[in-house]
Design a protein that fits this description.
This protein is an alpha/beta fold. Helices cover 37% and strands 13% of the residues. The protein is built from twelve helices and nine strands. A hairpin with a 5-residue loop joins strand 1 and strand 2.
Length: 377
């Protein structure tokens, strides 16, 4: 029997299969770590250890362990101010059915104080909001941020506003990022750390990482977008079986009925912007539009500009965590997308910019100051 044709077919098949296997890329973030670490300002604190240390030092407010993540890591919340007596007799849906939201949250008392709910790192590698919220906690505790700068507007607002702060809602994802920041990182390493890779080693990228959910069994490297169960909390099973971290955020919103909620995200090298939010109550959309107009003016006073189109963006078809928050507490919720200072630009595209640590931090503090002013108008 002549075996040469058989071996020839086998050889061709092996070569064909080998050719179909994508070549794995070498992501260079490990090589960049030393340079990135050298440039991190002293006020930029984003590690899980930093958060735990800060929580232990809270005196003027109350630090609480809200839950343990899917990977058994603590999720902390810091509470400042005196909770309002809301005289609740029904949940939001039932109160709306009765035709009066006061049955869910009566905010008519003379001593009522608006509540601001701020959440960082729903995607664990989007660390800009975490850095800002760690500084906010320090301001509320000491009057100064971690750089020693005073923030009199925030301190004055703290007398009239309640704050609920979750610096890092996804500690599992945060634990997979060996850096304090994405500033200065190359684009592909950023995507590797953020969204991860499929089982064949190729980048899942964005929004491709949303095509399978939960994603755990479909990836080789699980990106920081996800908790240890592969859940992207922005697109969780909100009404049936949400992850414990997601459920904690929703329960906090439902319990306290905050007057404004902001989820701080990272948006690569886009300009900072308020992301489109789908399926909101029309009256809440109008409040977000009003805030968008207000904060745009605040940014302009410091020669910054916002990107995107806010709540009017075309990307409002997605029902996500921000939408779900509004549907459990009936008040405005939005996503703030930060610039992340990555090491890339696009020629001829002015909407892609690279900001510094100081600029990124200022964007966040300016937004928080603006939220305080807006609530007290």
């Amino acid at each position: 029997m002549n075996l040469k044709p058989f071996f020839l077919i086998l050889l061709v098949a092996c070569v064909t299969v080998q050719a179909q296997v994508p070549e794995k890329r070498a992501y260079t973030y490990l090589e960049q770590m030393d340079e990135i670490m050298k440039s991190v300002p002293g006020y930029w604190k984003t590690s899980l250890e930093d958060i735990e240390t800060t929580a232990a030092r809270v005196k003027k407010g109350t630090a609480r362990l809200l839950c343990m993540s899917a990977g058994n890591r603590p999720v902390y919340g810091m509470f400042y101010g005196k909770p309002n007596e809301l005289k609740r007799s029904a949940n939001l849906s039932s109160a709306m059915g009765a035709g009066n939201m006061k049955h869910y949250a009566d905010k008519s008392a003379q001593d009522y104080k608006p509540t601001l709910f701020l959440v960082g790192a729903v995607h664990g590698g989007e660390l800009e909001g975490t850095a800002a919220l760690m500084n906010l906690v320090t301001v509320l505790e000491t009057g100064k941020d971690l750089a020693g700068k005073e923030h009199p507007d925030i301190c004055a607002s703290a007398e009239k506003i309640n704050f609920i702060i979750i610096p890092c809602a996804n500690p599992d994802g945060r634990a997979r990022v060996p850096l304090p920041s994405m500033v200065g990182l190359d684009y592909e390493s950023f995507r590797y750390l953020s969204q991860g890779t499929w089982v064949d080693g190729t980048l899942t990228d964005w929004p491709g990482c949303k095509t399978i959910h939960p994603i755990l069994e479909a990836v080789e490297h699980l990106g920081s977008y996800f908790n240890d169960d592969g859940i992207n909390m922005m697109h969780d099973f909100f009404f049936t079986n949400p992850a414990v971290e997601t459920k904690t955020i929703l329960q906090t919103a439902e319990n306290y009925a905050p007057d404004f909620t902001v989820l701080f995200h990272g948006g690569a090298n886009g300009k900072p912007h308020l992301a489109g939010v789908g399926y909101l109550f029309e009256q809440e959309k109008e409040k977000i539009r009003a805030f968008q107009r207000f904060i745009k003016e605040e940014y302009a006073e410091e020669n910054f500009s916002l990107g995107g189109n806010g709540v009017e963006e075309s990307n409002t078809k997605s029902f996500n965590l921000t939408s779900a928050i509004t549907h459990v507490c009936g008040t405005p919720a939005l996503t703030f997308e930060s610039n992340q200072g990555l090491d890339y630009l696009e020629e001829g595209n002015p909407s892609i910019v690279k900001y510094t640590y100081d600029e990124i931090y200022r964007h966040h503090m300016l937004t928080i100051e603006g939220l305080c002013k807006f609530l007290l108008r």
